[in-house]
Protein backbone atom coordinates (compact mmCIF):
# COMPACT_ATOMS: atom_id res chain seq x y z
CA UNK A 1 0.00 0.00 0.00
CA UNK A 2 1.10 3.56 -0.70
CA UNK A 3 1.45 6.25 1.95
CA UNK A 4 -1.43 8.59 2.73
CA UNK A 5 -2.17 10.84 5.70
CA UNK A 6 -5.14 13.11 5.02
CA UNK A 7 -7.17 14.12 1.98
CA UNK A 8 -8.79 17.44 1.19
CA UNK A 9 -12.15 16.37 -0.27
CA UNK A 10 -14.44 19.04 -1.73
CA UNK A 11 -18.06 18.45 -2.76
CA UNK A 12 -19.27 21.17 -5.17
CA UNK A 13 -23.06 21.35 -5.04
CA UNK A 14 -25.23 23.74 -6.99
CA UNK A 15 -25.58 26.29 -4.21
CA UNK A 16 -23.31 24.94 -1.45
CA UNK A 17 -19.74 23.73 -1.26
CA UNK A 18 -18.76 21.28 1.47
CA UNK A 19 -15.10 20.64 2.19
CA UNK A 20 -13.73 18.00 4.48
CA UNK A 21 -10.31 17.06 5.75
CA UNK A 22 -10.55 13.28 5.80
CA UNK A 23 -8.24 10.80 7.49
CA UNK A 24 -6.93 8.56 4.73
CA UNK A 25 -6.93 5.43 6.87
CA UNK A 26 -10.20 5.72 8.81
CA UNK A 27 -12.31 8.05 6.58
CA UNK A 28 -12.99 10.10 9.70
CA UNK A 29 -13.75 13.73 8.84
CA UNK A 30 -11.44 15.76 11.07
CA UNK A 31 -12.10 19.23 9.65
CA UNK A 32 -14.94 20.70 7.66
CA UNK A 33 -16.13 23.85 5.94
CA UNK A 34 -19.34 24.84 4.19
CA UNK A 35 -19.90 27.89 2.00
CA UNK A 36 -22.97 28.91 -0.01
CA UNK A 37 -22.47 29.78 -3.67
CA UNK A 38 -24.77 32.16 -5.53
CA UNK A 39 -26.51 31.05 -8.70
CA UNK A 40 -27.66 33.73 -11.12
CA UNK A 41 -30.79 33.53 -13.28
CA UNK A 42 -30.12 36.25 -15.90
CA UNK A 43 -33.12 35.22 -18.02
CA UNK A 44 -36.10 32.94 -17.61
CA UNK A 45 -34.86 29.37 -17.80
CA UNK A 46 -31.18 30.34 -17.46
CA UNK A 47 -29.00 29.28 -14.53
CA UNK A 48 -25.33 30.24 -14.32
CA UNK A 49 -22.39 30.46 -11.94
CA UNK A 50 -19.49 32.85 -12.19
CA UNK A 51 -16.26 30.79 -12.22
CA UNK A 52 -14.30 33.34 -10.16
CA UNK A 53 -17.00 33.50 -7.50
CA UNK A 54 -17.19 29.72 -7.42
CA UNK A 55 -13.42 29.38 -7.02
CA UNK A 56 -13.40 31.91 -4.16
CA UNK A 57 -16.13 29.88 -2.44
CA UNK A 58 -14.09 26.69 -2.89
CA UNK A 59 -11.08 28.38 -1.31
CA UNK A 60 -13.14 29.62 1.66
CA UNK A 61 -14.61 26.17 2.29
CA UNK A 62 -11.19 24.53 2.00
CA UNK A 63 -9.62 27.07 4.36
CA UNK A 64 -12.26 26.32 6.99
CA UNK A 65 -11.65 22.57 6.67
CA UNK A 66 -7.87 23.00 6.90
CA UNK A 67 -7.90 25.43 9.83
CA UNK A 68 -5.29 24.45 12.41
CA UNK A 69 -3.99 21.56 10.31
CA UNK A 70 -0.45 21.20 9.00
CA UNK A 71 -0.71 21.60 5.23
CA UNK A 72 2.25 19.33 4.58
CA UNK A 73 0.20 16.40 5.88
CA UNK A 74 -2.35 16.71 3.09
CA UNK A 75 -1.59 13.85 0.70
CA UNK A 76 -4.01 14.70 -2.08
CA UNK A 77 -7.01 16.71 -3.27
CA UNK A 78 -10.24 15.43 -4.83
CA UNK A 79 -13.52 16.98 -5.97
CA UNK A 80 -17.05 15.66 -6.15
CA UNK A 81 -19.03 17.79 -8.63
CA UNK A 82 -22.62 18.25 -9.65
CA UNK A 83 -23.38 16.76 -13.05
CA UNK A 84 -24.60 18.28 -16.33
CA UNK A 85 -22.82 21.62 -16.02
CA UNK A 86 -21.17 22.98 -19.17
CA UNK A 87 -18.40 25.57 -19.73
CA UNK A 88 -16.17 26.54 -22.67
CA UNK A 89 -12.42 26.76 -21.96
CA UNK A 90 -9.76 28.29 -24.18
CA UNK A 91 -6.27 26.91 -24.83
CA UNK A 92 -4.99 28.39 -21.54
CA UNK A 93 -7.92 26.98 -19.52
CA UNK A 94 -9.54 30.40 -19.27
CA UNK A 95 -13.33 30.31 -19.04
CA UNK A 96 -14.98 31.75 -22.15
CA UNK A 97 -18.47 31.43 -20.66
CA UNK A 98 -20.03 31.25 -17.21
CA UNK A 99 -20.63 27.75 -15.90
CA UNK A 100 -24.07 26.76 -17.16
CA UNK A 101 -25.57 24.70 -14.31
CA UNK A 102 -27.67 21.56 -14.55
CA UNK A 103 -30.80 23.64 -13.78
CA UNK A 104 -30.46 25.66 -16.99
CA UNK A 105 -33.24 25.12 -19.55
CA UNK A 106 -32.27 27.60 -22.30
CA UNK A 107 -31.55 24.67 -24.63
CA UNK A 108 -35.10 23.33 -24.39
CA UNK A 109 -35.90 21.19 -27.44
CA UNK A 110 -32.29 20.78 -28.59
CA UNK A 111 -30.89 19.02 -30.52
CA UNK A 112 -33.88 19.54 -32.85
CA UNK A 113 -33.31 16.43 -34.91
CA UNK A 114 -33.79 14.30 -31.79
CA UNK A 115 -37.30 15.66 -31.28
CA UNK A 116 -38.49 15.98 -34.89
CA UNK A 117 -39.54 13.62 -37.67
CA UNK A 118 -42.56 11.56 -38.63
CA UNK A 119 -41.84 8.45 -36.55
CA UNK A 120 -41.88 9.44 -32.87
CA UNK A 121 -42.00 7.71 -29.49
CA UNK A 122 -42.70 9.83 -26.39
CA UNK A 123 -41.73 12.93 -28.39
CA UNK A 124 -38.42 11.48 -29.63
CA UNK A 125 -37.40 10.70 -33.20
CA UNK A 126 -37.67 6.91 -33.17
CA UNK A 127 -34.46 6.17 -35.11
CA UNK A 128 -32.36 8.61 -33.08
CA UNK A 129 -33.80 7.31 -29.80
CA UNK A 130 -33.14 3.66 -30.60
CA UNK A 131 -29.56 4.44 -31.58
CA UNK A 132 -28.92 6.53 -28.46
CA UNK A 133 -30.39 3.90 -26.16
CA UNK A 134 -28.29 1.19 -27.78
CA UNK A 135 -25.00 3.10 -27.62
CA UNK A 136 -25.31 5.35 -24.57
CA UNK A 137 -28.10 3.73 -22.56
CA UNK A 138 -30.14 6.94 -22.45
CA UNK A 139 -31.03 10.18 -24.18
CA UNK A 140 -31.25 13.87 -23.30
CA UNK A 141 -34.61 15.14 -22.09
CA UNK A 142 -36.46 17.85 -23.98
CA UNK A 143 -36.01 20.22 -21.01
CA UNK A 144 -32.53 21.24 -22.20
CA UNK A 145 -30.90 20.35 -18.88
CA UNK A 146 -28.56 17.75 -20.38
CA UNK A 147 -25.02 18.72 -21.52
CA UNK A 148 -25.58 17.74 -25.16
CA UNK A 149 -28.48 20.19 -25.44
CA UNK A 150 -26.38 22.97 -23.90
CA UNK A 151 -23.45 22.22 -26.22
CA UNK A 152 -25.74 22.52 -29.24
CA UNK A 153 -27.15 25.79 -27.89
CA UNK A 154 -23.65 27.24 -27.48
CA UNK A 155 -22.72 26.21 -31.01
CA UNK A 156 -25.83 27.87 -32.44
CA UNK A 157 -25.97 31.00 -30.26
CA UNK A 158 -22.31 31.72 -29.45
CA UNK A 159 -20.56 30.47 -32.62
CA UNK A 160 -17.46 32.66 -32.19
CA UNK A 161 -16.79 31.46 -28.65
CA UNK A 162 -17.67 27.89 -29.60
CA UNK A 163 -15.11 27.98 -32.43
CA UNK A 164 -12.49 29.61 -30.19
CA UNK A 165 -12.98 27.06 -27.41
CA UNK A 166 -10.26 24.46 -27.00
CA UNK A 167 -12.45 22.36 -24.70
CA UNK A 168 -16.17 21.90 -24.14
CA UNK A 169 -16.07 20.83 -20.55
CA UNK A 170 -18.23 20.01 -17.56
CA UNK A 171 -17.83 21.36 -14.04
CA UNK A 172 -15.44 18.45 -13.42
CA UNK A 173 -13.34 19.54 -16.42
CA UNK A 174 -13.22 23.12 -15.15
CA UNK A 175 -12.12 22.28 -11.61
CA UNK A 176 -9.46 19.81 -12.77
CA UNK A 177 -8.15 22.35 -15.28
CA UNK A 178 -8.06 24.96 -12.50
CA UNK A 179 -6.21 22.75 -10.03
CA UNK A 180 -4.18 20.27 -12.12
CA UNK A 181 -4.02 21.91 -15.55
CA UNK A 182 -5.74 18.84 -17.02
CA UNK A 183 -8.75 18.74 -19.34
CA UNK A 184 -10.49 15.60 -18.15
CA UNK A 185 -13.93 14.25 -17.36
CA UNK A 186 -14.98 11.29 -15.22
CA UNK A 187 -16.89 8.38 -16.81
CA UNK A 188 -20.21 9.22 -15.13
CA UNK A 189 -20.00 12.84 -16.29
CA UNK A 190 -19.10 11.72 -19.82
CA UNK A 191 -21.99 9.25 -19.75
CA UNK A 192 -24.51 12.01 -19.02
CA UNK A 193 -23.49 13.95 -22.15
CA UNK A 194 -25.09 11.12 -24.21
CA UNK A 195 -22.12 11.33 -26.57
CA UNK A 196 -20.22 8.34 -25.16
CA UNK A 197 -20.51 4.66 -25.93
CA UNK A 198 -21.02 3.20 -22.47
CA UNK A 199 -21.43 -0.48 -23.30
CA UNK A 200 -19.21 -2.92 -21.45
CA UNK A 201 -18.84 -0.86 -18.27
CA UNK A 202 -16.64 1.89 -19.73
CA UNK A 203 -17.05 5.21 -21.56
CA UNK A 204 -15.53 6.03 -24.95
CA UNK A 205 -16.50 9.08 -27.01
CA UNK A 206 -18.58 8.10 -30.03
CA UNK A 207 -17.28 9.84 -33.19
CA UNK A 208 -20.55 9.09 -34.97
CA UNK A 209 -22.76 10.68 -32.27
CA UNK A 210 -20.47 13.69 -31.96
CA UNK A 211 -20.56 14.18 -35.72
CA UNK A 212 -24.35 13.75 -35.87
CA UNK A 213 -24.99 16.50 -33.32
CA UNK A 214 -22.23 18.84 -34.50
CA UNK A 215 -19.89 18.55 -31.53
CA UNK A 216 -16.19 18.47 -32.57
CA UNK A 217 -14.68 15.35 -31.06
CA UNK A 218 -11.32 17.08 -30.52
CA UNK A 219 -12.99 19.61 -28.19
CA UNK A 220 -14.27 16.97 -25.79
CA UNK A 221 -12.07 16.34 -22.72
CA UNK A 222 -10.29 13.04 -22.19
CA UNK A 223 -12.22 10.50 -20.11
CA UNK A 224 -10.25 9.35 -17.04
CA UNK A 225 -11.13 6.96 -14.22
CA UNK A 226 -12.28 8.26 -10.82
CA UNK A 227 -9.14 6.97 -9.07
CA UNK A 228 -6.73 8.24 -11.75
CA UNK A 229 -4.39 11.10 -10.86
CA UNK A 230 -5.27 14.14 -12.97
CA UNK A 231 -1.93 15.79 -12.21
CA UNK A 232 -0.05 17.69 -9.56
CA UNK A 233 -1.61 20.72 -7.85
CA UNK A 234 -0.57 23.74 -9.93
CA UNK A 235 1.14 26.67 -8.24
CA UNK A 236 -1.75 29.15 -8.49
CA UNK A 237 -4.24 26.71 -6.95
CA UNK A 238 -1.71 25.59 -4.34
CA UNK A 239 -1.18 29.22 -3.32
CA UNK A 240 -4.93 29.89 -3.05
CA UNK A 241 -5.64 26.70 -1.11
CA UNK A 242 -2.57 26.96 1.12
CA UNK A 243 -1.30 23.53 0.10
CA UNK A 244 2.04 22.24 -1.22
CA UNK A 245 2.46 22.54 -4.96
CA UNK A 246 2.53 19.25 -6.85
CA UNK A 247 0.49 17.05 -4.50
CA UNK A 248 -1.82 14.69 -6.43
CA UNK A 249 -5.21 15.87 -7.64
CA UNK A 250 -7.38 12.80 -8.17
CA UNK A 251 -10.06 12.81 -10.90
CA UNK A 252 -12.96 11.78 -8.66
CA UNK A 253 -16.58 11.44 -9.78
CA UNK A 254 -19.86 13.32 -9.89
CA UNK A 255 -21.97 14.00 -6.81
CA UNK A 256 -24.28 11.01 -7.23
CA UNK A 257 -21.49 8.46 -7.73
CA UNK A 258 -19.47 10.00 -4.89
CA UNK A 259 -22.40 9.87 -2.47
CA UNK A 260 -23.03 6.25 -3.51
CA UNK A 261 -19.46 5.39 -2.52
CA UNK A 262 -19.85 7.45 0.65
CA UNK A 263 -22.92 5.44 1.61
CA UNK A 264 -20.85 2.26 1.71
CA UNK A 265 -23.57 0.44 -0.28
CA UNK A 266 -21.55 -1.02 -3.14
CA UNK A 267 -22.46 -4.71 -3.28
CA UNK A 268 -25.23 -6.33 -5.30
CA UNK A 269 -28.66 -5.45 -3.89
CA UNK A 270 -27.32 -2.77 -1.54
CA UNK A 271 -29.40 0.35 -2.15
CA UNK A 272 -28.79 3.85 -0.91
CA UNK A 273 -31.32 6.66 -0.54
CA UNK A 274 -30.11 10.24 -0.69
CA UNK A 275 -32.28 12.99 0.75
CA UNK A 276 -31.14 16.59 0.45
CA UNK A 277 -32.95 19.42 -1.30
CA UNK A 278 -33.70 16.74 -3.91
CA UNK A 279 -33.60 12.98 -3.51
CA UNK A 280 -32.58 9.87 -5.37
CA UNK A 281 -32.44 6.10 -4.99
CA UNK A 282 -29.38 4.25 -6.25
CA UNK A 283 -28.05 0.70 -6.53
CA UNK A 284 -24.98 -0.68 -8.28
CA UNK A 285 -25.40 -3.12 -11.15
CA UNK A 286 -23.13 -5.05 -13.48
CA UNK A 287 -25.69 -4.38 -16.25
CA UNK A 288 -26.90 -1.11 -17.78
CA UNK A 289 -30.56 -1.04 -16.73
CA UNK A 290 -33.19 1.33 -18.10
CA UNK A 291 -36.88 2.09 -17.55
CA UNK A 292 -37.70 4.91 -19.97
CA UNK A 293 -41.34 5.10 -18.92
CA UNK A 294 -40.48 5.86 -15.29
CA UNK A 295 -37.30 7.90 -15.84
CA UNK A 296 -34.96 5.36 -14.23
CA UNK A 297 -31.59 4.95 -15.89
CA UNK A 298 -27.99 3.97 -15.36
CA UNK A 299 -24.79 5.98 -15.22
CA UNK A 300 -21.32 4.55 -15.04
CA UNK A 301 -20.45 4.34 -11.38
CA UNK A 302 -17.22 5.10 -9.56
CA UNK A 303 -16.84 1.34 -9.12
CA UNK A 304 -14.84 0.08 -12.13
CA UNK A 305 -16.88 -1.76 -14.74
CA UNK A 306 -20.21 -1.17 -13.04
CA UNK A 307 -23.23 1.08 -13.38
CA UNK A 308 -25.29 3.00 -10.85
CA UNK A 309 -29.02 2.58 -11.44
CA UNK A 310 -30.70 5.84 -10.39
CA UNK A 311 -34.20 7.14 -9.84
CA UNK A 312 -33.94 10.89 -9.21
CA UNK A 313 -36.63 13.10 -7.69
CA UNK A 314 -36.57 16.88 -8.02
CA UNK A 315 -37.62 18.03 -4.52
CA UNK A 316 -37.46 16.32 -1.12
CA UNK A 317 -35.96 18.33 1.73
CA UNK A 318 -36.91 21.43 -0.24
CA UNK A 319 -40.55 20.60 0.50
CA UNK A 320 -39.85 20.44 4.24
CA UNK A 321 -38.02 23.77 4.04
CA UNK A 322 -40.96 25.31 2.19
CA UNK A 323 -43.51 24.12 4.77
CA UNK A 324 -41.36 25.31 7.69
CA UNK A 325 -40.93 28.70 6.07
CA UNK A 326 -44.66 28.98 5.29
CA UNK A 327 -45.63 28.09 8.87
CA UNK A 328 -42.95 30.24 10.51
CA UNK A 329 -41.42 27.17 12.17
CA UNK A 330 -37.85 25.87 12.24
CA UNK A 331 -36.23 22.43 12.26
CA UNK A 332 -36.77 21.99 15.98
CA UNK A 333 -40.45 21.50 15.13
CA UNK A 334 -39.63 18.50 12.92
CA UNK A 335 -38.58 16.44 15.93
CA UNK A 336 -41.71 17.51 17.82
CA UNK A 337 -44.38 15.82 15.70
CA UNK A 338 -44.65 12.46 17.47
CA UNK A 339 -48.10 13.42 18.79
CA UNK A 340 -49.42 13.46 15.21
CA UNK A 341 -50.49 9.95 14.16
CA UNK A 342 -49.24 8.32 10.93
CA UNK A 343 -51.21 9.67 8.01
CA UNK A 344 -51.50 13.13 9.64
CA UNK A 345 -55.21 12.53 10.17
CA UNK A 346 -56.01 12.46 6.47
CA UNK A 347 -53.64 15.23 5.34
CA UNK A 348 -51.30 14.57 2.39
CA UNK A 349 -48.65 16.92 0.94
CA UNK A 350 -46.91 16.17 -2.35
CA UNK A 351 -43.36 17.51 -2.92
CA UNK A 352 -43.71 18.20 -6.65
CA UNK A 353 -42.61 21.83 -6.29
CA UNK A 354 -40.37 21.76 -9.38
CA UNK A 355 -42.11 19.15 -11.48
CA UNK A 356 -40.99 15.55 -11.07
CA UNK A 357 -38.77 12.99 -12.75
CA UNK A 358 -39.06 9.51 -11.23
CA UNK A 359 -41.47 7.87 -11.71
CA UNK A 360 -43.54 10.29 -13.85
CA UNK A 361 -41.08 12.62 -15.68
CA UNK A 362 -43.58 15.48 -15.67
CA UNK A 363 -42.28 19.08 -15.53
CA UNK A 364 -45.86 20.29 -14.98
CA UNK A 365 -46.47 18.38 -11.72
CA UNK A 366 -47.27 20.69 -8.80
CA UNK A 367 -47.20 20.47 -5.05
CA UNK A 368 -50.57 19.74 -3.49
CA UNK A 369 -51.84 19.87 0.09
CA UNK A 370 -54.99 17.80 0.16
CA UNK A 371 -57.35 16.84 2.99
CA UNK A 372 -56.92 20.08 4.98
CA UNK A 373 -59.54 20.65 7.70
CA UNK A 374 -60.03 22.96 10.68
CA UNK A 375 -58.63 20.34 13.04
CA UNK A 376 -55.24 20.34 11.34
CA UNK A 377 -52.40 22.33 12.90
CA UNK A 378 -48.94 23.45 11.82
CA UNK A 379 -47.58 20.19 13.23
CA UNK A 380 -49.92 18.27 10.95
CA UNK A 381 -48.58 20.20 7.96
CA UNK A 382 -44.98 19.46 8.93
CA UNK A 383 -45.63 15.75 9.41
CA UNK A 384 -47.57 15.62 6.12
CA UNK A 385 -44.55 17.17 4.38
CA UNK A 386 -42.25 14.49 5.82
CA UNK A 387 -44.70 11.77 4.88
CA UNK A 388 -45.10 13.22 1.38
CA UNK A 389 -41.33 13.02 0.84
CA UNK A 390 -41.32 9.42 2.10
CA UNK A 391 -44.35 8.39 0.00
CA UNK A 392 -42.72 9.94 -3.07
CA UNK A 393 -39.58 7.88 -2.43
CA UNK A 394 -41.70 4.74 -1.99
CA UNK A 395 -43.47 5.46 -5.29
CA UNK A 396 -40.11 5.54 -7.07
CA UNK A 397 -38.82 2.54 -5.13
CA UNK A 398 -41.64 0.35 -6.49
CA UNK A 399 -40.30 0.85 -10.02
CA UNK A 400 -36.64 0.58 -8.94
CA UNK A 401 -37.34 -2.82 -7.38
CA UNK A 402 -39.10 -4.07 -10.52
CA UNK A 403 -36.04 -3.11 -12.54
CA UNK A 404 -33.11 -3.89 -10.23
CA UNK A 405 -34.49 -6.33 -7.65
CA UNK A 406 -35.39 -6.15 -3.97
CA UNK A 407 -32.99 -4.37 -1.61
CA UNK A 408 -30.84 -6.53 0.63
CA UNK A 409 -29.80 -3.43 2.53
CA UNK A 410 -30.81 0.24 2.60
CA UNK A 411 -28.37 3.02 3.55
CA UNK A 412 -29.49 6.60 4.21
CA UNK A 413 -27.31 9.58 3.23
CA UNK A 414 -27.80 13.29 2.65
CA UNK A 415 -28.74 16.06 5.06
CA UNK A 416 -32.35 14.85 5.26
CA UNK A 417 -31.21 11.82 7.23
CA UNK A 418 -30.05 14.09 10.03
CA UNK A 419 -33.78 14.29 10.85
CA UNK A 420 -34.58 11.16 12.86
CA UNK A 421 -38.31 11.71 12.41
CA UNK A 422 -37.93 11.70 8.61
CA UNK A 423 -35.66 8.63 8.65
CA UNK A 424 -38.18 6.71 10.78
CA UNK A 425 -41.06 7.67 8.50
CA UNK A 426 -39.13 6.60 5.37
CA UNK A 427 -38.30 3.27 7.07
CA UNK A 428 -41.98 2.72 7.91
CA UNK A 429 -43.23 3.74 4.45
CA UNK A 430 -40.73 1.34 2.82
CA UNK A 431 -41.23 -1.25 5.59
CA UNK A 432 -37.47 -1.76 5.68
CA UNK A 433 -34.64 -0.99 8.11
CA UNK A 434 -32.46 1.93 7.01
CA UNK A 435 -28.84 2.15 8.15
CA UNK A 436 -28.08 5.85 8.50
CA UNK A 437 -24.48 6.77 7.73
CA UNK A 438 -22.56 8.91 10.19
CA UNK A 439 -22.60 12.59 9.18
CA UNK A 440 -24.95 11.71 6.31
CA UNK A 441 -24.77 15.20 4.82
CA UNK A 442 -21.06 14.60 4.16
CA UNK A 443 -21.52 11.42 2.10
CA UNK A 444 -20.19 13.08 -1.05
CA UNK A 445 -17.11 14.34 0.78
CA UNK A 446 -16.45 10.95 2.39
CA UNK A 447 -17.12 9.06 -0.85
CA UNK A 448 -14.71 11.22 -2.82
CA UNK A 449 -12.13 10.78 -0.07
CA UNK A 450 -12.56 7.00 -0.30
CA UNK A 451 -11.78 7.22 -4.03
CA UNK A 452 -8.68 9.29 -3.29
CA UNK A 453 -7.56 6.88 -0.57
CA UNK A 454 -7.99 3.97 -2.99
CA UNK A 455 -5.89 5.82 -5.55
CA UNK A 456 -3.09 6.90 -3.23
CA UNK A 457 -2.86 3.65 -1.25
CA UNK A 458 -3.40 1.36 -4.27
CA UNK A 459 -6.32 -0.43 -2.59
CA UNK A 460 -9.80 -1.31 -3.86
CA UNK A 461 -12.75 1.03 -3.39
CA UNK A 462 -14.55 -1.76 -1.52
CA UNK A 463 -11.63 -2.01 0.91
CA UNK A 464 -11.98 1.68 1.74
CA UNK A 465 -15.78 1.84 2.00
CA UNK A 466 -15.93 -0.91 4.61
CA UNK A 467 -14.83 1.89 6.95
CA UNK A 468 -17.96 4.01 6.35
CA UNK A 469 -19.44 4.38 9.86
CA UNK A 470 -23.14 3.83 10.62
CA UNK A 471 -24.57 6.13 13.28
CA UNK A 472 -27.95 4.41 13.89
CA UNK A 473 -30.68 2.29 12.33
CA UNK A 474 -34.17 3.54 11.54
CA UNK A 475 -36.63 0.68 12.10
CA UNK A 476 -40.11 0.46 10.52
CA UNK A 477 -43.18 0.64 12.75
CA UNK A 478 -45.46 -2.28 11.70
CA UNK A 479 -48.72 -0.43 12.34
CA UNK A 480 -47.52 2.68 10.53
CA UNK A 481 -46.26 0.55 7.62
CA UNK A 482 -49.74 -0.93 7.12
CA UNK A 483 -51.33 2.52 7.03
CA UNK A 484 -48.68 3.93 4.68
CA UNK A 485 -49.26 1.04 2.27
CA UNK A 486 -52.87 2.21 1.91
CA UNK A 487 -51.91 5.89 1.74
CA UNK A 488 -49.45 5.21 -1.08
CA UNK A 489 -52.34 4.10 -3.28
CA UNK A 490 -54.15 7.37 -2.55
CA UNK A 491 -50.94 9.32 -3.11
CA UNK A 492 -50.47 7.83 -6.58
CA UNK A 493 -54.11 8.50 -7.41
CA UNK A 494 -53.70 12.20 -6.57
CA UNK A 495 -51.31 12.55 -9.48
CA UNK A 496 -53.41 10.42 -11.82
CA UNK A 497 -56.49 12.57 -11.17
CA UNK A 498 -54.76 15.98 -11.22
CA UNK A 499 -52.10 15.67 -13.95
CA UNK A 500 -54.37 17.27 -16.58
CA UNK A 501 -55.03 20.22 -14.26
CA UNK A 502 -51.29 20.56 -13.54
CA UNK A 503 -50.63 21.00 -17.26
CA UNK A 504 -53.40 23.60 -17.56
CA UNK A 505 -52.06 25.52 -14.56
CA UNK A 506 -48.57 25.62 -16.10
CA UNK A 507 -49.77 28.32 -18.49
CA UNK A 508 -49.65 30.71 -15.53
CA UNK A 509 -46.30 29.48 -14.20
CA UNK A 510 -43.44 32.02 -14.34
CA UNK A 511 -41.33 30.26 -11.74
CA UNK A 512 -37.63 30.94 -11.22
CA UNK A 513 -36.06 28.28 -8.96
CA UNK A 514 -34.31 29.23 -5.75
CA UNK A 515 -32.45 26.46 -3.92
CA UNK A 516 -30.81 26.71 -0.51
UniProtKB/TrEMBL annotation:
<dbReference type="GO" id="GO:0005975">
    <property type="term" value="P:carbohydrate metabolic process"/>
</dbReference>
<dbReference type="InterPro" id="IPR018484">
    <property type="entry name" value="FGGY_N"/>
</dbReference>
<dbReference type="GO" id="GO:0016773">
    <property type="term" value="F:phosphotransferase activity, alcohol group as acceptor"/>
</dbReference>
<keyword id="KW-0418">Kinase</keyword>
<keyword id="KW-0808">Transferase</keyword>
<comment type="similarity">
    <text>Belongs to the FGGY kinase family.</text>
</comment>
<dbReference type="InterPro" id="IPR018483">
    <property type="entry name" value="Carb_kinase_FGGY_CS"/>
</dbReference>
<dbReference type="InterPro" id="IPR000577">
    <property type="entry name" value="Carb_kinase_FGGY"/>
</dbReference>
<feature type="domain" description="Carbohydrate kinase FGGY C-terminal">
    <location>
        <begin position="274"/>
        <end position="455"/>
    </location>
</feature>
<protein>
    <submittedName>
        <fullName>Carbohydrate kinase, FGGY family</fullName>
    </submittedName>
</protein>
<dbReference type="Pfam" id="PF02782">
    <property type="entry name" value="FGGY_C"/>
</dbReference>
<dbReference type="GO" id="GO:0016301">
    <property type="term" value="F:kinase activity"/>
</dbReference>
<feature type="domain" description="Carbohydrate kinase FGGY N-terminal">
    <location>
        <begin position="7"/>
        <end position="262"/>
    </location>
</feature>
<dbReference type="Pfam" id="PF00370">
    <property type="entry name" value="FGGY_N"/>
</dbReference>
<dbReference type="InterPro" id="IPR018485">
    <property type="entry name" value="FGGY_C"/>
</dbReference>
<dbReference type="InterPro" id="IPR043129">
    <property type="entry name" value="ATPase_NBD"/>
</dbReference>
<dbReference type="InterPro" id="IPR050406">
    <property type="entry name" value="FGGY_Carb_Kinase"/>
</dbReference>
Amino acid sequence: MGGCDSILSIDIGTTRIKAGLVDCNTLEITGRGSVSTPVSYPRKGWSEQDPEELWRAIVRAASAALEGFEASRVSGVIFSTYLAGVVLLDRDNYELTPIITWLDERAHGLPRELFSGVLKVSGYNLLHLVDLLRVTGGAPSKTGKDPLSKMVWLRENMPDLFTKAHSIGTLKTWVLAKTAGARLVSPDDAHLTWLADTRGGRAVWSPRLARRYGIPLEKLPRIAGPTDVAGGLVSSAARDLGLPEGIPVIVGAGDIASAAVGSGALADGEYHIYVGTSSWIGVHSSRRLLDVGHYIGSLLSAKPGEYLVIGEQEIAGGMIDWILDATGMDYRAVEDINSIPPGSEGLIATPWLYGERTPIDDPHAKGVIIGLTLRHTKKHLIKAALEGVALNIAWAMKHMVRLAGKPKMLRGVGGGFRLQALANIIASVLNHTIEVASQPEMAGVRGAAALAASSLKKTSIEYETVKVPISWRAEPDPDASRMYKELLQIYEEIYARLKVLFRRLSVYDHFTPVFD
